[in-house]
Design brief:
The protein is 31% helix and 19% strand. It has 7 helices and 9 strands. The relative contact order is 0.14. The strands form 3 sheets. The chain has a 5-stranded parallel beta sheet with strand order 2-1-6-5-7, with helices on both faces. Bound molecules: 6-chloroguanine. 6-chloroguanine (6GU) is lined by residues 83-85, 87, 131-134, 136-138, 140-141, 144.
Length: 227
């Protein structure tokens, strides 16, 4: 998979070099390139924003630098991802869909967002996804793009050491994951649930499923239609 990121803060993406994703990049499984939007400006001040038509607070990113930058990156096989608090909710299902694409391009907006004609224009040429991480506001799309890249990157075939661990985790079954324990069997007077030491695999599976349902009901009743 190839990932291109356009931003006015390229230095945000230095963390791509570490951890799981760094390994995927070294192995060539995922190739990333970060582009400075200001390289697609032509005025002395490298201006990327302007005041909003219709008035209002804040600044809006002008469409021309975005058009120039994206035209040099996208092909008909690209998916353009625009992180925005006004986007569709990003879920594990979205991550799975995006993990099957061969080219993701992230347009990281700052200020009050990007002139909407950028999304309109590229929607006529390629797949465009405006996505939101949740109901809160970040200053720009950079941190959101990093989260999306991590969620998608670990689902790219060949990425995780133990593929079974992907199926067992939170959200893959529509339920949160069960709690996990390791050695020692007793720590500060807290014992590991005895069933996990029983060797009875059927009982362990049943207990874990009960824990998943109880946990989901307690912290995310919306996931099982209980609100
Ligand atoms: Cl994707 N972008 C921004 N700027 N803020 C957000 C968000 C995305 N998701 C939640 N808040």
């Amino acid at each position: 998979m190839r990932i291109d990121i356009v931003t006015i803060f390229p230095e945000f993406f230095g963390v791509l070099d570490v951890s799981l994703l760094g390994k995927a990049r070294q192995s060539g499984l995922i190739e990333t390139q970060v582009h400075d939007l200001r390289d697609s400006t032509h005025d002395r001040h490298r201006t990327v924003d302007d005041t909003p038509y219709g008035g209002g607070a804040g600044m809006v990113m002008r469409p021309e630098p975005w058009g120039e930058a994206l035209d040099g990156i996208v092909t008909e096989r690209s998916t353009l991802i625009v992180p925005s608090p006004a986007g569709h909710p990003f879920t594990q299902a979205t991550a799975r869909e995006l993990a099957a694409r061969d080219h993701l391009v992230f347009a990281c907006g700052r200020y009050e967002g990007i002139d909407q004609r950028v999304v309109e224009h590229y929607s006529e040429r390629i797949e465009v996804r405006e996505v939101s991480l949740g109901d809160y506001v970040l200053n720009g799309g950079e941190v959101a793009a990093m989260a999306i890249i991590e969620a998608v990157g670990r689902l790219v075939p060949g990425m995780v050491g133990n593929p079974a661990s992907l199926e067992e985790e939170s959200h893959e079954a529509g339920l949160l994951e069960h709690p996990s324990y390791t050695k020692p069997a007793v720590w500060r007077d807290h014992a590991v649930p005895p069933v996990l030491l029983s060797g009875n695999h059927g009982a362990i599976a049943a207990w874990r499923h009960e824990q998943q349902v109880a946990r989901t009901r307690a912290t995310r009743p919306d996931l099982i239609g209980e609100q």
